[in-house]
Amino acid sequence: MNFLEKIFSELRESGARPVLREMRESGPVTVTARELLEMVGQARAFLRRSGLRPGDRCGLLAPNSIRWVALDLALMAEGIVVVPLYARQAPGELVFMLRDCGATLVCCGDEQLREGIAANWTAGAPPLALFEQIFGTAEAGGEIAPAPLARDEEALVTIIYTSGTSGEPKGVMLNVRNLNHMVPCTGMRLDQLMEGSTTQTADQIFHYLPFCFAGSWILLLTALSRRSLLSLSMDLNRLADELKAAEPNYFLNVPTLLERIRTGVETSLAAKPAVIRIIYERGREAWGRQQMGRAGMIDRFWLGLAERLIFKTIQQKIGPGIRALICGSAPLARETQLFFQMLGIRVLQVYGLTETTAICTMDDPHNFVPGRVGPAIPGIEMRLDEGNEIVVRGPHIFAGYWNKPEVTAAAMRGDWFRTGDQGEIDAAGNWSIVGRIKNLLILNSGHNVAPEPIEEKILLNLPTAQQCVVIGNDRSFLAAIVTGEVSEEQVQEAIDKVNGSLPHYKRVLAFHRQREPLTIESGLLTANGKIRRDAVNQAFHREIENLYQTRKA
Questions:
Q1: pTM
Q2: Please, which residues have CB within 8 angstroms of residue 42's CB and are 6 or more apart in sequence?
Q3: pLDDT at 329 over 90
Q4: CB atoms closer than 10 angstroms to residue 325
């Protein structure tokens, strides 16, 4: 039984059990497993009427919704290759990807998204179907067998376009074999996380990250293949209210959100009466000493007081049923992971790329090391290659880049995939990610500097900033671009604090402050929020030159 057959089997057996829920302002909208299968049948009937055949590519352009999930399942069940697209990307970029994959149909969540494609694809565009057309008919597709079409392990399931931090996006091809390996691996970790649970008959999961991203999609498939209720965020501006209503056991995060939660908590505590601030500070210091095995009797007093009066209250506000926060897409600051651990909330890290079916490592829920991203998942191999680059091999490695055999070959070293990430591994097999090799800054002194750890430290000391980009390739020193509502004095203070712990060649000696943040729409961030460093260097060329000229003068 392959991964998709397992999902359909679970849905058929679940019947009236709720499986998906949209967290709307007017109240949650829930579908049962049986209702979801009926929607899948509707979509499959539409796809057949549209003339699509196994192997055809179909664009899926919409925010997360129950209909998105039903259509995704329908496409996979019909053997059609799903090309999920990010609704916030510029229409011109979306059209490039749709042209590149040779899409024969594009399914759009609303009229605005369809108009954006139509306006930028004026000749030779495929049919553009709205979700209303697909699901608005009374025809349920009853003539279609409820099971998915049979497929072999090499059959292509999806093409997920990479973010394109430099150059044009590339279509990552994932096949049945990749997903047959990955979905059970993630399910195993969730089984470990939920061990001993007696309060729920199904996992309660909250989800806000777009399904068009590989890690987000893997969580969706895993949730559907086990007894889960997946609650979908429908409005990021209402995230706190949605989270409170969903009462999840766990949910997938990016570091940015966890950093904002931490900043919000600490800012709120700073405005509390002095006695609360003192209890928090003493409790935090006592917890730190306890972790080092140096806590004394007075530490136990302050820690007990802080746990009863502050830590437990914060934990309950984040989520009374939370067993863990899962974090991926980028390394999380160790200090932030420890902050949540102090509150009694585990933060488990995951590392991987789209090319590795989203995952290479996962923290063990019962044995994890803050600041590291866990051991390699079962059945795959990881090692360090030249320049401490992480290379991996196993059944989760992608089938290649769509129509780019030369680029695919360059990404491989034999059967090892070159991740482009610098890493470290400890004696217990837990990995940490240092930075991207292509992001390395080489100063004209010959020193090599990974910018990510420095950027992370500056932002930790500058909570109101949006982004920090350290630059300095082929220069005599490092500089930074900092965005957000921050003053010159605040930036300088943060940089001075960070510089004090760094060797001379890693110190930031100049900076440019920019109030407007880098955005996806401006082309300075990728679809999943990563910095397009080449584009930033071009956009701020004049400001960067001025930094170095002024310092030289």
A1: 0.87
A2: 70, 74, 134, 135, 137, 139, 140, 141
A3: no
A4: 23
